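User: Please fill in residues for this 407-position structure.
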């Protein structure tokens, strides 16, 4: 079997890369996915947050492009600009948010502002704001449905002539004299000239088969799903404590829509997921557990519930006076790099490209990522946005980026 371009991994990133490549005229594109359907990796576990409130220029620009894309896309990906509220509990944290907002505005982020505790109290009624020194609120940040984004990209790619092979695990990437020649799968060998590695948290092992050390480390992230006795505050945005990383948002059941809808290969033409959002009494909350070691463990651990409720207890009755919906609590994997920024582009091996290491931002940055990879592969460089600071060689060259708002 042969294909000019093989995209390994059918999550939101692989789907976006395939879509953008085929939009630009590439036709012989094959996505290989080891599972029987898409959405079984991190994309199906994501919270669905999208934001332009970052610290580094590149993250802000990737978000600006992607938010515009979600807003204008003919596919309904359920983009809802409910806002992101970061709050601070020390003056140092507030200064940090102020510096970020200044930079975000300089780069063109609209509707982002510094807010005081009284304003925060109005935005999130019922929240304890006694210890809050202020915050930043970005009105165009908000939510999307990660699976609808993935489905939209996949359907677009398939309509443009791409193919997708399920139940096909790539075992290794073959190279000869410094260029890609094939991938070996559990279904046989596929000759190809180009490979894009989009296997999320599982990328490092496959890159190693081509002799590349890709510094992507998996880490479990857990989310508690709970039902409140009281209705949640109206128009609740994403709310984040910049100090601890504790965050919460109203819960929408993307996965129920997805399971009801099946894989995109069987629902071609349907861009909007079936109705299935839960009422405004259900809430998601989480925080980055500092004791969580790197691993590929995706089992939800019940002891996490007590840990996260410690944060909830202090913050609001509508978080604390809740009943855990245990069957909807979940655990997935972040794909962290040493500087918490993605790795985009090629390497010393001709024809081998990476779209990895999103460190928890892969859904929101998927439009910019797909476009960047397609331009790098087809034109030699990304011209819509300079993403050269995200290349793999930054680690060897000691040119790491710096983002503290890693949540
Ligand atoms: C709890 C949680 C909350 C998150 N919240 C957000 C959020 O609010 N906003 C946001 O932008 N991001 C969020 N993220 C991060 C986001 O989910 C990821 O960055 C994104 O889904 C990465 O997409 P991907 O396609 O690279 O990876 P995945 O979705 O993991 O897809 C990789 C695919 O590769 C396949 N695969 C792996 N190995 C092989 C192989 N050898 N052969 C063939 N196929 C293979 C897997 O089966 C999988 O389908 C969150 C993540 C978690 C865990």
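Assistant: Residues filled in for all 407 positions:
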């Amino acid at each position: 079997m042969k294909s000019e371009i093989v995209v390994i991994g059918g999550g939101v990133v692989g789907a976006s890369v395939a879509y953008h490549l085929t939009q630009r005229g590439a036709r012989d594109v094959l996505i290989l996915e080891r599972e029987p359907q898409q959405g079984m990796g991190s994309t199906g576990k994501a919270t669905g947050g999208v934001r332009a409130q970052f610290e580094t220029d590149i993250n802000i620009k990737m978000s600006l492009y992607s938010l515009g894309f979600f807003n204008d896309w003919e596919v309904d990906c359920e983009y809802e600009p409910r806002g992101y509220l970061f709050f601070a509990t020390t003056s140092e944290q507030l200064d940090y948010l102020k510096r970020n907002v200044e930079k975000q505005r300089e780069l063109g982020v609209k509707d982002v502002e510094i807010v005081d505790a009284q304003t925060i109290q109005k935005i999130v009624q019922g929240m304890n704001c006694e210890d809050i020194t202020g915050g930043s609120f970005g009105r165009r940040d908000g939510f999307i449905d990660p699976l609808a984004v993935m489905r939209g990209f996949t359907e677009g790619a398939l309509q443009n002539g791409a193919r997708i092979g399920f139940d096909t695990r790539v075992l290794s990437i073959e190279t000869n004299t410094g260029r890609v020649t094939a991938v070996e799968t559990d279904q046989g060998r596929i000759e190809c000239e180009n490979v894009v590695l989009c296997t999320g948290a599982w990328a490092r092992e496959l890159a190693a088969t081509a002799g590349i050390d890709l510094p992507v480390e998996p880490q479990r992230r857990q989310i508690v799903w709970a039902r409140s006795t009281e209705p949640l505050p109206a128009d609740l945005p994403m709310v984040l404590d910049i100090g601890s990383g504790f965050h919460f948002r109203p819960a929408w059941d993307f996965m129920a829509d997805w399971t009801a809808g099946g894989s995109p290969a069987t629902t071609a033409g349907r861009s909007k997921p079936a109705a299935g959002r839960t009422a405004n009494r259900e809430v998601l909350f989480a925080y980055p557990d500092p004791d969580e070691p790197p691993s590929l463990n995706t089992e939800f651990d019940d002891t996490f519930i007590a840990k996260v409720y410690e944060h909830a207890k202090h913050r609001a009755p509508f978080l604390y006076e809740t009943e855990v919906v245990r069957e909807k609590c979940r655990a997935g994997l972040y794909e962290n790099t040493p500087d918490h920024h993605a790795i985009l582009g090629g390497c010393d091996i001709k024809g081998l490209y990476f779209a990895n290491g999103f460190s928890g931002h892969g859904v929101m940055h998927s439009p910019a990522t797909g476009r960047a990879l397609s331009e790098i592969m087809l034109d030699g460089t990304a011209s819509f946005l300079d993403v050269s600071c995200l290349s793999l060689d930054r680690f060897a060259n000691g040119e790491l980026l710096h983002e503290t708002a890693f949540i």
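For context: Residues 264-276 have pLDDT under 50 and may be disordered.
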